[in-house]
Task: structure prediction
Amino acid sequence: MSPYFKETSFYDLTLNKITMTYAPFDNLPESISLRQWILYINPETNLIDKAYIEKQITPQKKIQLTWNKGKNCRQVYLTDDENGKSRIEKTIEIKWEVK
Result:
């Protein structure tokens, strides 16, 4: 993946997290459906607390996945209209309790 994605990272003071973003350098091959992902790392534990992943399904459809450690996971299915405006087709959220 490294020839296709650029990694940037910074310490986000407002979130108190290290944020690592992976975004494509340029046009991706059709075989790669991931469009970007962001990891939020707890600087005290060096563990991922949150992740965001965006996947292109077709030129007009994509899925956004957000995972929050010990809390929930959400999938948002989006469709772009002819003007490029996205609308939500479906949202699935799973919540859990960790004891």
Observations:
- The beta strands are 5-12, 17-24, 34-42, 47-58, 61-68, 72-80, 86-95.
- Residues 5-95 form one domain.
- The two ends are 36 Å apart (CA to CA).
- The longest strand covers residues 47-58.
